[in-house]
């Protein structure tokens, strides 16, 4: 899954889960959490010549974030944790048990490194990734319309304050 898939489908999962109680999560933080594992692990993987799925792709990491959200001053981390969970789900992380269950199955991570050619090939040839990107874009557009985000000003308002001028379901 790539950026649009993680953003749109991650947001869509949170939106569906909170449809009847829309104030229970901050969708901006869900969006941030949906990208956070890659924002952390991809640069670290390139730097350390390891796979692009490292510490932030583990249940340990999401567990720490969600546990920290129990602290009253850190409640917003719950929304970040939801975004991280959607990221792991969309990455089908269960296919890499040594990563998702780290450190239970050992302390090391798979070797790897940056592979721009492989990245582009997957984007152009993998129907799962392509469908995820298209579906993610569709969900982002539907969310924006449902929440009155129909202009750059409304988008800025949403990003700054978490609400657009005409907040809908």
How does this model look, in words?
The chain has 169 residues and is mainly alpha-helical. The protein has one domain. Helices cover 62% and strands 0% of the residues. The chain has eight helices and no strands. Helix 1 crosses helix 4 and helix 1 crosses helix 7. The chain is globular. The model has no long low-confidence stretch (mean pLDDT 90).
Q: Oligomeric state of the chains?
A: single chain
Shape: globular
**Distance separating the two termini:** 27 Å
Rg for CA atoms: 17 Å
Strand content is under 5%
List the total number of helices. 8
- The number of domains: 1
Q: What is the H/E order? A: HHHHHHHH
Q: Level of helix content? A: 55-70%
The tally of beta strands, per DSSP, is 0
Low-confidence segments, ≥5 residues, pLDDT <50? none
Q: Structural class per helix/strand content?
A: mainly alpha
Quick structural gist:
This protein has 169 residues and is mainly alpha-helical. The chain is 62% helix and 0% strand.
Characteristic terms for this protein:
globular, 0% strand, 8 helices, 169 residues, mainly alpha
